[in-house]
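Database export, one record per block. Field names are fixed; values are copied verbatim from the stored entry.
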Amino acid sequence: MSSATPSIRSIASGAILAAATCFAATASSGMETPAKQAYIVDLQTGTVLLEKDSTTPSPPASLSKLMTLYMVFEQLKQGKLSLDDKFVVSRKAWKMGGSKMFVEVDKRVRVEDLVRGIVVQSGNDACIVVAEAMSGSESAFADAMNRRAREIGLTDSNLVNSTGWPDEGHAMSPRDLAVLAQRIIEEFPEYYPYFAEKSFRYNKIKQGNRNPLLYRDTGADGLKTGHTRASGYGLVASAVREGRRVVMVLTGLRTARTRSFEARRLLDWAYQSFKNYDLFESGAVVENADVWLGKDETVPLVTERDIKISLPRASRRGLKAKVVYEGPVPAPIAKGTKIASLVVTAPDFKSIEVPLVAGADVARVGVFGRLGAAISYMVWGAER
């Protein structure tokens, strides 16, 4: 005899700004950029701040070296490699063109030096040394990278070599590069500081890091630049300001100077135009839902994780939240059961829907209680 009807309860925007972290959303910014492709995401909230053709695979140039490094870092983390291990330089690696760390054929090179040679000097030769040592050949290493890429959620990528050298079919999307950057930052904090090094000397040759953001007061601490004729000038960058970490991917820029200017401009825009707002802490009671035939008249609706969003600063006044559920909710109710949704909206912001679950068990009343409720319903109706 339950009269279950949709229930919508609004929560005043001022009341919901109360606590901690993280629910993915997309902001609608209208920002333009000469980059062919762009993707900027706030890692604290998962909010995409800027998106331009971000899921189309395209030649990544040296940006794909991040996947080579990911494979190395994973082996180091698992104890299968040591920074002091040494790999032998093959003739193929020694002869490789493009950016080099200048390893010498038949010499043995420490893994840590190879990592720094890839990160700082963008050494194609170092990448091939790593690939051959870890998988036997560069093609086998590419196969291993593709398998791992699919496992970690890189859905728009296909890797043919370890270096990013122009090769038919070698492509990655900006979104995949951002996902990869986030994984490197979060999974390998002990190795991530290599990306902030401004120079590295090997074989008596000192080379500077090509990341232009490292040389200005931007908060940047990584990750990688890339350039070929096919790809244009690209950059995967990350920065932290006031506890907020942003990852930015830009591709297809015409010159190194344009890349430097645009990277700094968009990074400043991401921090200046958006602010992070805490909505609810994990386990916080958002609303109380009416219960039908329960020993308790209501059940608390709670979030299962912290909820935080990034909003354009101008959209703050229009922030709204409402709880939607079919009510009254029939007992018995088990704690943790999904009952409702919290819908958050704001101007220039793609609405998000967050599940809310029962914060407590609610037992069903006995037979006499149900009989009394049924009589009450017939006499008074659903509303008393």
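Remark 1: The chain has two domains: 5-19+281-380, 37-276.
Remark 2: The first strand starts at residue 5 and ends at 11.
End of record.
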